[in-house]
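Consider this one:
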Amino acid sequence: MECRKEPGHRDCAETPSVPETAAGVLPPADPPRAGPLAGTPSGETGAPPCNTAPDTCIGGHPFRVLRCGVDSLYLSYRGRLSEAWEKRLRALKLTAQSPEAAEAAQAQVKIGEHLFEVLDKGSRHFAYVLIDNWFRLEISGRDAERLPLAHVKFPSELLTLYPLVEVEKAARFVVATLGRVEGSAIVSRIDLCVDVATGFPMNSWPIEAWVTRAHRIDPHYVQGRFSGWSIGSGGSIVCRLYDKTLELQRKPREYLTALWRETGWDGSTPVWRLEFQFRRAPLKELGINSPEDLPAVLAALWRYAMTEWLRLTEPSVGDQSRSRWPTHPLWEAFASVAWGTISTPLKRVRIERIPHDEVLFQQGLGALSSFMASHQVADIPEGIRQFMEAAQRHYDRSPNGKTFRLYVLEKLLVKGRRFNTRLNVRDDPEQRAREAEAYRRAKDGE
């Protein structure tokens, strides 16, 4: 990526170097001025996505915006669980607690096109938890009068690839199936993010350069490598600036790297994510309630976080008032992102909870190669044959009575439930009887 100057931005050579200081926690001295959430300027609503922004030069490094959007969303639905669904979910929760894998694997429920895993435990004050590849639903019992009917988490991949209005409609259908829904959903939490490709050193300023309302500022390192900052951890507003490419080395996300490449990423420049997390309290103060409010206020919400709540500055020697310190050009570049509503998905794909194939291959081939090395087998087909035969002998002789076939069958049922890829409860009585008989025979070693 070639660095070039853009009108309105400082020349790279003008960015002063700032000496490093020891990291620590600062009090919120001289915080940014408080103020209500400004309205979205005329013309911003419905603007094209920000991923068409040109490169900017910051400190001799290119700065290219690859993506901006909603990274996480949590909605609450008021209402009450129906009596019939209370009984059904209670029974499925007990099924999930069974010590028998084949029985626990039947803790599933199908609602519309969604096949949910029912967990064996609730979450916080919610009695039931349902998870599939689109949603995580926390459902309250009928006796929980002060709780919403459902609290729904939307994963990042879903929000990246599908329109918000579509995923909220799908969530509302599921929740309305479970009980009576009252009014619009309430935004409990939203995370906004901007991904940029840049080689700019993100630890090149002292900790006091952060001027913020937050009381906590933390730098982070992974195996000695600087990985980012977090500001306000544990609070109602949290900022994270971190190396997303470093994170993806541990958790690959093909959909995300594909999006970056389509918007100009060269595949090698580090991608840094600036992310703001807003919980219910500040959202309520800023007048953001239902998901219908979001498209018109995303840009204004971003500006509020970047100017009123947090600012990265260039410390001025001799000026003790940190609020007067000039804004760092990196922060100016992030703040000037032309937010727009991403109204169409990148591509229509099935979103799954299945581990990435690369992870499965690494785990499987790691075990196979270790077996071959320990048994001095060099031929791959021969190594696979001996590995499978040895595994079968090991489980067939296991003192717990589980044969190799039974062990694999139980794992298939458990993983099918966990990955939402297999309906273990059959509607066809004859098919259900055949599967039950096959399981019994495997369990009895026949």
Notes: Residues 4-53, 341-350 have pLDDT under 50 and may be disordered. Residues 12-75+188-335 form one domain.
